[in-house]
Design goal:
three-stranded antiparallel sheet; six-stranded antiparallel sheet; 271 residues
Length: 271
């Protein structure tokens, strides 16, 4: 009678089978995560299609934008000075600002803060002793850490556009699109893309707060919940230098308890 080949008194075969199964599962999950990460990076570096509609020759109306992902730039160069003076003065019954006026204001006042300079590496310690070798290794580790921590996003000049977004929730007839060219630096690599967020305003303790219902970096959708899209928008907005003009506008903004996006304009409501 032949021997039982499944007999495993020490449990070695069972342990080896379990380890092999664990390794296969781990490798599968790792490959899936790596593929998802690479796919996300490709989408980040891929800019959305720019929508450039032409008004209808007969009606003069601009056709509705497509339902898919696109970027629609607002009209540039509006004269914002009268509206800015009105906003910075005593709050009135309402200040109506078009997106072209917002873009004119942004082009002259909304400057990004310069990116922090990379720390210069210190000269390497001379070779010879074990102490010097250890010091060199530590210094190289500090330089590498500085490179890793130098990940950042440098935004360009914002662009604002107000329009009816077919992808917006049903209760939002008009949306404000805030778009910024972005330069993303990580580990010495540079990616130029565009960030855009679409949303409306909600009431907060510090005046109207912009609340995005959708946002993208390049063609990669940013998750809305739980508050990640809002945090990212706030982080990008904080990249801009706190100039005296920016402080004045920030102080004036808190005087208005509400803001509404309507057809072609942003309306700040007075107290």
């Amino acid at each position: 009678m032949g021997g039982n080949t499944n007999f495993d008194p020490t449990g070695e075969k069972k342990a080896r089978k379990k380890a092999t199964m664990f390794g296969a599962v781990f490798c599968g999950l790792f490959n899936a995560a790596l593929g998802a990460l690479l796919g996300f990076c490709v989408l980040v570096a891929t800019s959305p299609i720019e929508y450039n509609p032409k008004p209808d020759a007969k009606t003069g109306k601009t056709p509705d934008p497509p339902a898919g992902l696109f970027y629609w730039a607002g009209q540039p160069g509006g004269d914002y000075r009268a509206k800015a003076s009105e906003m910075l003065g005593v709050p009135s019954a309402g200040v109506t600002i078009t997106d072209s006026e917002l873009n004119g204001w942004a082009a002259e006042n909304f400057k990004a803060a310069p990116a922090p300079a990379k720390p210069a590496p210190k000269p390497a310690a001379p070779q010879g002793t074990n102490t010097n070798d250890i010091a060199k290794v530590k210094e190289e580790a500090k330089v590498a850490e500085a490179e890793i921590s130098n990940f950042g996003m440098t935004p360009g000049t914002p662009n604002f556009h107000i329009f009816h977004d077919p992808s917006a929730p049903a209760d939002i007839p008009f949306s404000l699109q805030v778009a910024l060219p972005l330069k993303i630096d990580i580990l010495g690599m540079e990616v130029n893309t565009i960030y855009q967020a679409r949303g409306v305003f909600v009431t907060s303790a510090n005046g109207p707060q912009f609340k995005p219902y959708s946002s993208y970096i390049g063609s990669a959708r940013v998750p809305v919940a739980p508050g990640f899209a809002q945090s990212l928008f706030n982080d990008i907005a904080s990249k801009f230098a706190a100039s005296d003009a920016a402080k004045d506008y920030a102080a004036a903004w808190t005087k208005y308890p509400g803001a509404k996006v309507q057809d072609g304009a942003l309306v700040l409501g007075g107290k």
